Amino acid sequence: MASELYNIIEGVSREKGIDPQIVVSAVEDAIVVATRKYYKTQENLRAVLDKDSGKINAYAVKSIVETPEQVEDANLQVTVEQARKLDPAAEAGGELLIPKVTEGILGRIAAQLAKQVIFQKVREAERDTVYNEYIGHVNEIVNATVKRIEGPDVILDIGKAEARMGRKEQSRLESFAVGERIRVVIVRVEKAAKGPGVIASRSAPELVQHLFQTEVPEIYDGTVVIRAIAREAGERTKIAVLSKDKDVDAVGACVGMKGMRVQSIIRELRGEKIDIIEYHEDPVTFAEKALQPAKVSRVTIVDAADKHLEVVVDDTQLSLAIGKKGQNVRLAAKLLGWKIDIKSEEEKRQEVEQQMSALVTQTVTPLELVTGLGEGLVEKLKAAGVNTVESLADMTPEQLEAIEGIGPKTVEKISIAVNNYFASVDGGEAVAAADAETAGEAATEAAVAGTEVGEESPAEGGLETAPAETEPTATAAAEEGAELSSEESATEEAATEEAPEDKQS
């Protein structure tokens, strides 16, 4: 029959949820510590609990050796001859247990020390039990009761242990009262000196996922799959869903009739906004969906390896695409797992113009083309980093004189040579332009001459057509009519002048 002490040990073990043998070991270790303190010895001590009588016996443990020469420490070793005086069955290589009297001699201090050791061992066993219990439930949902509130932290009762929910793990929209029942996610379990730390959260995306699995049967049975979740607790959540059945609308299943399903989840999250998006394998299409409610003009993959997208929206849609404090684009980037750059149409146009202007190549002329510069001078200029005529023309006399081996006379020589070079270049361009203009005028004159030759060629060739002989043209008739009119007018004027002369005579 078990003793009263052992029955108490079993009761404590059931209450703490630990193995009774752990408590027995703690009691035995406590007796060893108290005995060592009382005897002030360095011997190896061992305590053994008798389950039937409830007595705890303490022993000094020594190793048995063959000869006295093998004894290195009398507190730890004993010869076979000495061991057989206490135990006739002792053999070399075994252990000798020498009883230590503890009953009635261990005082109040030793008892207090033993009590502390027992409590410490029990707490350590309890921490290990709690850790092993909840380490396998990380990222799972548990029902909890608010036990107390310590500053910004909320202490929760989750059954066999307490969980702590820090301020970062809470939603901005939520406040809790003692005794309130809530659902939380176990995000991690920590092994701390004061005990295992179970950290709970209501801001984790797994909470939203579990709520959808509870409210939407299609998600629970696997017809609709949640592919990605991006959440900013208390503000907005974006969730991407995909249907495995072509006859089932993934977004519609999550929303429910008249929005009943999603509204239930929003109430659980105390009014947090939820965007439900259809998942696409194509990142371009997925990005357009993820940035809703903004309307996207076009999406371009900048770098597929680095997962970098560029999104262009209309100027009126830019603020909506970015969202409040960048929230919309930030959640979209989390949902896709891509980096997203958003630009308006005007910004993109300016960027393209800058790129086009940067692509305009500038004229680069080697120094060797300037005839007035000698080879030695060209080598000095190149040694100083001046490799083109354009860069040489941009330098001031002071900068040129700073180059080793170049003085004021050389600077003047360089100036004359560069000016002559540019003058020759400009003259060549002017001559080319003049030649082009002359060639154009010659071509024009040739074209006009060809036209006139073409008109005169029938008369010169003696080719006469029948209509030209028989029927005068309208132009010729008009000209003849004009000549007759002029002759008649002249005759009338002559007659008028002769009439006064007749009257005078």
Spell out the key features of this protein.
505 residues, alpha/beta, disordered C terminus
Q: In words, what does this structure look like?
A:
Residues 451-505 have low confidence and may be disordered. The chain has helices at residues 4-16, 20-39, 80-86, 108-134, 205-215, 217-220, 250-255, 260-268, 283-290, 318-322, 327-336, 345-359, 375-383, 389-393, 397-401, 408-460, 466-470, 474-504, and strands at 44-49, 56-65, 77-79, 95-100, 141-150, 153-157, 162-165, 181-192, 195-201, 224-232, 236-243, 273-278, 296-303, 308-313, 339-344. The chain has a five-stranded mixed beta barrel with strand order 5-6-7-9-8. Strands 1, 2, 3 and 4 form a four-stranded mixed sheet that branches. It has a three-stranded mixed sheet with strand order 10-11-12, sandwiched between helices. 48% of the residues lie in helices and 21% in strands. The termini are far apart. It is of the alpha/beta class and 505 residues long.
TL;DR of this structure?
With 505 residues, the protein is an alpha/beta fold. It has 18 helices and 15 strands. The strands form four sheets. A five-stranded mixed beta barrel has the order 5-6-7-9-8. Strands 1, 2, 3 and 4 form a four-stranded mixed beta sheet that branches. The chain has a three-stranded mixed beta sheet with strand order 10-11-12, sandwiched between helices.
